[in-house]
Write a structure and sequence with these properties.
Strand 5 (112-121) and strand 6 form a beta hairpin. With 232 residues, the protein is of the alpha+beta class. The chain has five helices and eleven strands; from the N terminus they run αβββαβββααββββαβ.
Length: 232
């Protein structure tokens, strides 16, 4: 997995640059999530390539859990719906755990988490662990959640109650603009940066602008290990 620049170097360079203005959010709506204040977007409204029975967005961790190799955090369709041997298909789904994935984070408690897509088609269970593979599964990008997933797969985060850090807008030509962020809320050396992307109907993701919103907070009201990820 690719490594980001060291936290201190990134933080210092952004702090020296200072905070600037934010993007114009006119026409954007908040990214859909399962509950308010979540940072985990919904990925239920998918229209994947034809022939698939199901698409799951799954999460796994290191060190590996022997009891739960990975778990589904969102899904479209019915897993193993057309499998000849449903039990064997489901067992393969439950045991799925690739050696790498996307949206990779490490926390101060020593746990690292990453995500991947899993698809089923008949008896075939496939894992898709790169942004390019995600693009292939989705085919034409024709929902807001697919556009957000394309940006999520590149490692960007979303605040689901704030369009400045989690917004999406549909364009007249069928494309989408997506606002995400990077940064660590509870570490002053990693400022919060806003990133605006254009996601074409073919799945091409292009960054249009970025802004330094603010420095990290000195204190937090929630558990430090949940707020101190190190992206890789």
């Amino acid at each position: 997995m690719r490594s980001f620049l060291p936290r201190t170097l990134v933080g210092m360079s952004l702090l020296l640059a200072g905070c600037d203005s934010s993007a114009d959010t006119d026409g954007y709506r908040e990214v859909a999530c399962s509950f308010w204040a979540s940072t985990h977007p919904h990925f239920k409204d998918l229209r994947p390539a034809a022939g698939l029975d199901a698409v799951q967005v799954r999460s796994s961790s290191e060190p590996r859990s022997t009891e739960y190799p990975s778990s589904s955090i969102d899904a479209w369709g019915q897993t193993c719906a057309t499998a000849g041997d449903v039990s064997a298909c489901q067992a393969e789904v439950d045991a799925s755990r690739p050696s790498e994935g996307f949206h990779f984070s490490c926390y101060s408690n020593g746990i690292c988490a990453y995500h991947f897509l899993l698809t089923t088609q008949g008896d075939e269970v496939r894992i898709h662990s790169t942004p390019a593979a995600v693009r292939e599964v989705l085919g034409t990008i024709d929902t807001e959640q697919e556009a957000v997933l394309m940006v999520y797969a590149l490692g960007y985060d979303f605040l689901c109650y704030d369009v400045d850090q989690g917004g999406v807008k549909a364009n007249a030509d069928g494309s989408y603009d997506v606002i995400g962020f990077r940064g660590i809320q509870c570490a002053r050396d990693i400022p919060i940066t806003q990133h605006v992307f254009h996601v074409s109907t073919s799945g091409e993701v292009r960054e249009m602008e970025s802004h330094v919103l603010r420095g990290g907070d000195e204190t937090c009201d929630f558990e430090p290990h949940l707020a101190d990820p190190v992206r890789r």
